[in-house]
Amino acid sequence: MKIQAVRGMQDLLPESKAIYRYVEDTIRPVLKSYGYSEIGLPVIESTVLFERLVGESTDIVEKEMYTFTDRSGDSITLRPEGTAGCVRSAQQNGLIYNQMQRLWYAGSMFRYERPQKGRFRQFEQIGVECFGMPGPDIDAEILFLTARIWQELGLTSEVTLELNSLGNVSSRGAYKTELIEYLSAREDELDEDSKKRLQTNPLRILDSKDAGTQAILKEAPLLIDHLDDESKRDFDGLRELLERAQVPYVINPLIVRGLDYYNKTVFEWTTASLGAQGTVCGGGRYDTLVEELGGRPTPAVGFAIGLDRVALLVAENSVTDKVGDLDLFIASLGSEARTESMLLAEQLRRNFVGLNIGVHCGDGKLKSQLKRADNSGALIALILGEDEIAAAEVTVKPLRAEDPQRRMSWPALERYLKKVFD
Ligand code: ATP
Ligand code: MG
Question: What pTM was estimated for this model as a whole?
Answer without folding.
Answer: 0.90
